[in-house]
Amino acid sequence: MTIRATLQDGRIVEAWTAEAVEARLSEAADTLRRLRMAGVRPAQHRSSWPDVVQDFWEAYGGGDFIEYHDEPMRPPPPSSSAIDRMDEAMTWFAYLDDPVDRRVVWAKAFGTGNRRVAAMIGRSRETVRRIHKSAINLIVDALNAYAR
Questions:
Q1: What does pTM read for this prediction?
Q2: Range of the domain at 120
Q3: What percentage of the chain's residues is helix, strand, coil (to nearest 5)?
Q4: Is 20 a member of any domain?
Q5: Which of 18, 68, 89, 121 could bond 28 through an S-S bridge, CB–CB 3.0 to 4.6 Å?
Q6: Which stretches in the chain have pLDDT values below 50?
Q7: Residue 48: what pLDDT?
Q8: CA–CA separation, 142 vs 122, rounded Å?
């Protein structure tokens, strides 16, 4: 682990800051979201019937009576360096003793709003904001102390 932190916009800071930690945790959440993992979701309905083979025009439109359906696009898989940075960022949760702090920081990394996080943990939005700020500062202090 280095004392230098690279922000998402390419800037390099010499010591970890709250902005750098939040950016790295957001990147870790995005990397985890883009990973293709088998077996982590419940099994879907299965049938012994074969899949229906559709014609190109049925799947992608082209006739007057056939409606075009956009296929949802998955984001590209993360790079190996992004996965390494995600693994490093996931270890930072060991610096937080309170499970509520971990839950708030992880939910905020995924972009969840204060109101929804407050509903999840049963506290006010202002308490969520205060918990998040203090937890990020604990991580920053631990990273800067560890790197020296």
A1: 0.73
A2: 1-35+77-148
A3: 55, 5, 45
A4: yes
A5: 89
A6: none
A7: 73
A8: 28
